[in-house]
Write a structure and sequence with these properties.
By secondary structure, the chain is of the alpha+beta class. It is about 30% helix and about 30% strand. The structure holds coenzyme A. Coenzyme A binds near residues 64, 91, 119 and 129.
Length: about 180
Amino acid sequence: MSEAKRNPAARTPASTQSEMTEIILPNDTNILGNLLGGRLMHFIDLTGAMAAYRHARTHVVTAAMDHIDFIRPVHLGDLLTLKSSVNRAFSSSMEVGVKVWAENTRTGEVAHVASAYLVFVAIDERGRLVKVPELRPETPDEQRRYADALRRREHREAESARRKAERQETAGREP
Ligand SMILES: CC(C)(COP(=O)(O)OP(=O)(O)OC[C@H]1O[C@@H](n2cnc3c(N)ncnc32)[C@H](O)[C@@H]1OP(=O)(O)O)[C@@H](O)C(=O)NCCC(=O)NCCS
């Protein structure tokens, strides 16, 4: 990564906050009228990317999406609200947290339905890594997420190394 590819001005988590609201339509659901898991992951990816773009101010790609707990179903006609912000910036990568709520439009009841952590990597128009600005957490919640993001990165790296070793061990075997 050359000095020319640095993008140094520090930013705050608040400056990356992003939000998206969707109404759940028949095309988004399974035959029981519940939101499809893959569709929810798509919305999570998009909302996460918005925060990453606001931090990096360059192209970003999704490098990883940590496991997602689908806490409760989302129904046809619900309003889905997704909120995201960058938890921590590393060198070219950023961890983004996304939280999702569903609102029943008739009763007004709002429930937390899913949360996820994603890693986005900043690249230029030729696909080369770009250094992202420093992220400076300000509030106690932002500082907690900042600290937790480092632990999750260490866990991801260990898991990735374990999977790589497993692939090498099983390469060449019958499926
Ligand atoms: C993500 C990608 C750009 C990383 O490129 P790479 O040459 O493997 O880069 P490196 O190994 O040097 O890692 C670069 C950064 O990405 C991070 N990274 C790479 N793979 C990762 C993974 N699986 N999970 C989390 N972070 C990852 C590294 O930790 C590193 O972060 P840092 O610079 O902040 O320390 C590349 O793997 C890629 O293009 N993947 C496909 C992305 C894609 O198509 N996404 C879906 C559509 S947007």
